[in-house]
Design brief:
With about 270 residues, the chain is mainly alpha-helical. The protein has one domain (about 15-40, about 45-265): Ribonucleotide Reductase, subunit A (Orthogonal Bundle). It has nine helices and no strands. The longest helix has about 30 residues, at about 60-90.
Length: about 270
């Protein structure tokens, strides 16, 4: 019977070398996201403004018009926040590859705002702001470390909202809003993937104190995010009972995702 090799014991030098290699791999991943974002970039004029109605034509009742007003308001609110947050990431990035990537992310978020505001021109007014989204924004802006900012915005929030873009796109199929939300889902998928790559770089040799700081921020972030998901303005209050089962399913899926996300970096949160 062949003898089993004894387990390898890494020296500090070997551990540091492994971290450097892993960091280089993750930075190359991030650079690939930069090139992908450049290829996927689109212009507001690319949307089929002359071929499709701005909003679904079959949803013209007052109730549905109120729904679209509230949806547009929340989308614009979110992307205004994202412009500021991504610009901050651009200014704080510590690696060349990250700086290059964030130039594309800032442009994406600004393009989203521009397109959504043009869609909003089709309605007489917008709805209320989601107060929990403003709370999430305050947490994002107040975070002290780059690690907190990247993980909360790109690792967590951008991934969580992609299913909502798909839901809106499905309900608004055959309209500019539906086409736009398809593009938002693709863009945010790239934002999320790049955020994971950069967070892997930043967290590879993070100190225990920094890990606790990120963990504590996520513990603050997640309960507010759940309230953000459940909140509906008066224009959409009639959906609350109809969507109760769907809301519960989404929240459960998000809890599972959050656990997988934090385990990626050896963190824990109680949800």
């Amino acid at each position: 019977m062949p003898l089993e090799a004894p387990p390898l014991v890494e020296t500090d030098v070997e551990t540091e070398a492994a971290i450097v290699v892993a960091r280089d791999v993750d930075l190359r991943r991030l650079e690939r996201y930069y090139h992908l974002a450049k290829r996927q970039a689109w212009s507001v004029k690319d949307l089929a403004w002359d071929q499709l109605p701005v909003l679904p034509e079959t949803r013209t009742s007052d109730r549905w018009q109120g729904l679209w007003r509230s949806v547009l308001s929340q989308l614009i609110q979110a992307d205004h926040i994202a412009v500021k947050a991504s610009a901050e990431l651009l200014s704080r990035a510590e690696h060349r590859e990250a700086t290059l990537y964030y130039t594309t992310m800032v442009q994406d978020e600004a393009r989203h705002v521009e397109a959504l505001m043009r869609v909003a021109d089709a309605v007489d007014s917008l709805g209320q702001r989601n107060p929990y989204l403003d709370e999430l924004a305050d947490l994002q802006y107040d975070s002290e470390t780059l690690e907190e900012k990247v993980i909360c915005l790109q690792g967590f929030f951008e991934a969580m909202v992609i299913p909502f873009f798909h839901d809106i796109s499905r309900v608004a199929r055959g309209s500019i809003l539906g086409e736009l939300c398809q593009r938002l889902a693709v863009d945010d998928g790239i934002h999320h993937g790049s955020g994971l790559a950069y967070a892997d770089v930043l967290m590879a040799d993070a100190s225990p104190a920094l890990r606790h700081k990120v963990q504590d921020r996520l513990r603050e972030f997640y309960p507010i995010y759940i309230e953000f998901v459940k909140w509906r303005p008066p224009e959409r209050a009639w959906l609350s009972r109809l969507m109760a089962d769907r809301d519960a399913q989404v929240i459960q899926e998000h809890i599972q995702f959050a656990h997988r996300l934090v385990h990626r970096w050896g963190l824990t949160i109680d949800l």
